[in-house]
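Methods — Computational structure assignment.
A single polypeptide chain was analysed. Its primary sequence is given first, followed by the predicted tertiary structure written as structure tokens.
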Amino acid sequence: MFHSRDVKYLREDVRVNAKIFLDLCKEAGLNVLITETVRDKAYQEYCVSQGWAAKTATVPTFHSVEAGLAFDICKNVKGHEYDDAEFFKKASAIGKKIGFSWGGDWKSFVAVSYTHLRAHETRHDL
């Protein structure tokens, strides 16, 4: 199984925007850690089996090695990675400003998806 948190595996425009996202979050005082960028089919199937991805999230996904269009984040504070709703609200607002869509806006599977950002449009003008 292969999965990575390294932005080098993201598609080039997504990688550029992910770095802009991290810089803007840092400026806003948000300590963001990218926890997942790409994954292979075996790891995607594992994520589905664990309930970390929707049962309908079959390969290829935006996280697939071939696509490199999505990444997941957490708050980079040990013991508080996922328990701060306000953190995710602020970070996602920055992501959406750059052109990412946020999993927390989804109508289904929101419980896990608030950590997810996906390429929606490309913006480099910020």
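Note: Confidence is low (pLDDT under 50) at residues 122-126.
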